[in-house]
Amino acid sequence: MEKLLDSLLSSKSEGLWWDFKQKFHDELFDLLHDITCLANVIHDGDRYLIFGVSDDFKVIGLDENECRFSQADLIGYLRQQPYAENNTPTIELKFIQYANKSVAVLTIKNERLKPFYFTKELKFRNKILRAGSVYSRVRDTNTPKDSCANPKDIKAMWLERFGLDLPAITRFQLLLEDTENWVYNGINGAFYALDPDFTISISEEEYRGGNFWWQNILVEKPIKYDYLLRYKNAVMHELPVIHFQNEGLCVPFPDVEYVTHPEKNDGLNAEFYCDLFFYTKGTLSYALFEHLRKLHTEDPDLSTPIFTQTKPPIIKLPFFILDKGEQIHELCNNYLSAYKKFVENQQDIVDSSLYKGEDMDRYKLERVFSEWAFCNLTGKCI
Domain named Schlafen AlbA-2: which ranges (predicted)? Predict the structure, then answer.
């Protein structure tokens, strides 16, 4: 946040997606107008209202008695307003120390829900926010309360809202999340009811089983096939899927990090592979994961470990779910540390597991380690 403030203050100006205020608004009604204008800006990133900065862009800070609103106050106030479809801008209010002064930063999150507008006219004293009017900004200036954003900007908002500003493959990711509007033929495909140019073709079975422990030693070996994501019949992307038919469990093939293995000569003298299986939010694979989970239940379980949602589970897969891709490096390091600890205490850990007394081949050791490491790193034990 400090670097952001450095950059914005050094510009000596206000802009399309940021605004400075010397103090908090006297009335929430005026702040509502500011928030709505910033929420509707066409900008690929969050937007900011920064309090405690003078008109000549000097940090003057806020006194304690000037901090008139809390984040909870603002969120509650926004939720009371008649926003169309109850789409309320998402905000975050933080008080920070900057240049030895107390500064408040109100972040308005970038969301593809534009335009934000009101379904009822709002009045406060002699001020009015109009029903149906779309408020935004041009450069550093808000749309006046008695006016409306220009048609070009409003068109851009609606295009963003429906994903029409995106490449087909990016739009596909958003449409997969709208599971209820996909129509499956029960055999080998589906189409998106609101735009039938988007279709899914399901390939025939490629093989059963595979190279990883969870493909070989569970109560059944999963089938592997592909989901072909098509736009106007052109294949935009292929995603491999694994399906435990008897168990009723179908998920995309996870991403794999090959952390270490016996042939690596890293001094660990291990007898099995250390493979990390995961999905990352915001990716096409994770969008398909959500899609497939939602197909089977109205209240999908998107947590881990992953198991069937339609009956008491027998198979539970210790796959990780990352909030963002940057987390994989730290997770791999932690996973490798767990691997080293497991190798050092292998017999004790096996003897204290559900598999005590069983003959341990490579696949069984990988299962014991994967479940043990997952439990230690997430607190969720299988």
Answer: 14-144
Between CA 100 and CA 61 the distance in angstroms is 8
Q: 17 lies in which domain range?
A: 2-161
Q: Which token pair is 258?
A: 């090959």
Residues 125, 95: one domain? Answer: yes
Q: Which residue has the tokens 């609103």?
A: 69
Q: Model's pTM, two decimal places?
A: 0.74
Same domain, 141 and 209: no
Nearest to 370 by CA among 330, 327, 339: 339
Q: Does one domain contain both 252 and 367?
A: yes
- Among the three residues 161, 192, 223, which one is the final residue of a domain in this structure? 161
- pLDDT tens, the chain, 382 aa long: 889 999 999 999 999 999 999 999 989 999 999 999 999 999 999 999 999 999 999 999 998 777 778 899 999 999 999 999 999 999 999 999 999 999 999 999 999 999 999 999 999 999 999 999 999 999 999 999 999 999 999 999 999 998 889 999 999 999 999 999 999 998 899 999 999 999 999 998 888 989 999 999 899 999 999 999 999 999 999 999 999 999 989 999 999 999 988 777 777 777 889 999 999 999 999 999 999 999 877 778 888 999 988 788 899 999 999 999 999 999 999 999 999 999 999 999 999 998 998 888 999 999 999 999 999 999 999 8
Distance of CA 132 to the CA centre of its chain: 30
